Amino acid sequence: MTLWLFTAKRLLVLVPTLFFVSVLVFSLQQLLPGDPALALAGEEHDAGAVAAIRAKYHLDQPVAVQYGIWIGKVLRGDFGESLRNKIPVSELLASKLPVTVELAVASMIIALAIGIPAGVISAVRKGTPIDAAANLVALTGLSVPHFWLGIMLILLFAVQLGWLPASGYVPPWEDLRRNIATTLLPAFVLGTGVAGVMMRHTRSAMLQTLGSDYVRTARAKSLTERAVVLKHALRNALIPVITLGAIEFGRLLSGAVLTEQIFAIPGFGKLLVDGVFNRDYAVVQGVVVVSAVLYVLLNLLADVLYFLANPRLRGEA
Question: What pLDDT, in 10s, does the model give residues 18-42?
Fold first, then answer.
């Protein structure tokens, strides 16, 4: 089986997944209480204004027709207009997505820099105090709530030490130094949680790999322990970690709601919260649909990387 055929088969599975996601997102808006036409018309409205709004937004059509019109616009990149800002939702998404992508990339860098080395060291030093310390750090990263850790970091590094800003965001093209300063704390908060997951999975995969036959053969050939661990064990242990990394990265791209609220980061999470509180349904739909598409595409990327990295899968195919 070639890579193109493998990717095509995965795409055939993703299409119905995205279809059901779109139906679910559209249906949730229909289940919300209240009449959207009356909400748009305001408190003082007449029957003519309400009828005009229903005709403009196709609210007088059957639900199936409304869905068809909506999904047709979504496929063209038209998510409607924000009821609060009177700005096209696609423009809001385009302005917020780079912020979330930057935060997600920075968080994943921190997670990989902490989680994979800690998992390798913990597996190699199994049963030692180093292993216990690495597991303790990983469980701490998984257990500590993000909002509490964020507040503590703000109190320490922003209020007491004054090293970093407490909140806000500066684009990198305006001031790169300020951009790094405003991104560091929220990226560390998100990265530590992902690092705990990465550490546990890396440790488990390394323990399984270190006990395999080819690792024992490599040691029998008098290879150095460093070469055995890094060139033979780690390379194979990272195959399942690839899938985990893609899933965690997709979760970060969906928007870290609490972290972005605490640090006032204008990303997808904050946009979603503002849309829910303002009952800006077009914004909520746009954020959820784009997040779902990104998540599904990252899962596709993980499958492709897994196919490329695993020679046994290619051999079976």
Answer: 888 888 888 876 666 666 666 666 6
Please tell me whether residues 111 and 64 are part of one structural domain.
no
Helices within the chain (DSSP H only): 3-31, 36-41, 47-56, 63-75, 89-124, 129-143, 146-153, 176-210, 213-220, 225-227, 234-253, 257-262, 268-277, 281-309, 311-316
Range of the domain at 22: 3-75
In a domain, 114, yes or no: yes
Residues 60 and 162 in one domain: no
Inside any domain, residue 215: yes
Residue 139: which CATH number?
Answer: 1.10.3720.10
101 and 60 part of one domain? no
Domain shared by 148 and 225, yes or no: yes
Instruction: Name the domain count of the chain.
Output: 2
Give the separation between CA 4 and CA 2, rounded to whole angstroms.
Answer: 5
Output the six-digit token pair for 252: 């970060």
With contact defined as beta carbons under 8 Å apart, do 316 and 260 qualify?
no
Beta-carbon-side half-sphere exposure of residue 139 (alpha carbons within 13 Å):
6
pLDDT given for residue 43 in this prediction:
61
Q: How many other CB atoms are there within 10 angstroms of residue 293's CB atom?
A: 15
Return the exposure string of 31-62: e unless at least 16 CB atoms fall within 10 Å of the residue's CB, then b: eeeeebbeebbeeeeeeeebeebbeebeeeee
The residue whose two tokens read 């979330």 is 100
Nearest 5°: CA angle at 315, between 310 and 316? 100
Structure tokens at 64: 């199936």
- CA-nearest of 261, 263, 262 to 271 is 261
Look up the pTM and report it.
0.79
